[in-house]
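To the team - tryptophanyl-5'AMP complex, inputs and output below.
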Amino acid sequence: MPRVLTGITPSGTLHIGNYFGAMRPAIELQAGGDAYYFIADYHSMTVLTDPAGRRAYTRGIALDWLACGLDPAKAVFWVQSDVPEVCELTWLIGSLTPMGLLERAHSYKDKLAKGIAPNFGLFAYPVLMAADILLYNTHVVPVGKDQKQHLEMTRDIAIKFNLTYGECLVVPEERIADDVAVIPGLDGQKMSKSYGNTIEIFGDEKALRKKIMGLVMDSRTPQEPKPDADKNLAVQLLKLVAPADVAADYENRLRAGGLGYGDLKKGLFEHYWNHFAPYRTRRAELVGNPDYVDQVLRDGAGRARAVAAQTLARVRTACGIR
Ligand code: TYM
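Output:
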């Protein structure tokens, strides 16, 4: 049975790009019974220096995952830093990772291009991510397209390690579904915490309605036929949150002419809001039950740590550390 693993960094509030790109595929895969999902708080160190913020985002993401359907009876769920063994593996594999590989990382180059002063953590981030994956003998990693290069790097690192010290790491593969590889944000670019263009999974109704009604469309009149209806941002988002026939109906009416952008956006908001309604209810219940959430994360950390200890023992032996 393939082992599935994925992580999310607690550097902000989760948005529907995270949900459709990674969480929903991961939740579908948990039925297979060998799923490992974690909150990557060590990763947030490279972008966030606010301790209270880190704690709050970590908690929030735990609630979000559970509310959206992560089932602790099927998936191991923990906070990354509860298994500090990952830092040791980061060092062991990092010592074999070529500088050139890390210098080619898009995420690092993008940050440099934006004028962000680079630090060791930002540079070494893909090695920590590789350790996250390799520590748990992962076969499949469901992620959005922005993580593809990190998975390629993970494979390169694992292969090099195995060639150097003998076969002891599982070489993983990414799982990126075409239709949700890049969920667009309010401005049409990739939806991202750092671009300020997000639609949150959970949030205040009024503020979210305002965001969606504020989507910028072109100046064509409602009556004008729109042959490019499939490229319309609201139509693309509607396809995620509405039943297929409903989304197709909106698209056809837009293409034919007669549907105004205001009505399209209103429809998008309603379907978005209803899509997440059951999860909202579940999340409110979880907020009222903090002991349950603590217990889930504690159990998950214990199970994750047992796997981590075995891998690390194997890797240490392979490279001659005791
Ligand atoms: P993060 O926290 O930036 O994003 C979490 C997941 O959401 C996906 N995603 C998207 N997918 C489609 N469209 C979008 N607009 C969109 N925005 C985000 C991301 O691709 C990701 O799958 N480094 C990782 C976290 C991580 C990890 C790991 C993931 C740490 N260790 C090991 C997998 C395995 C990150 O920062 O993702």
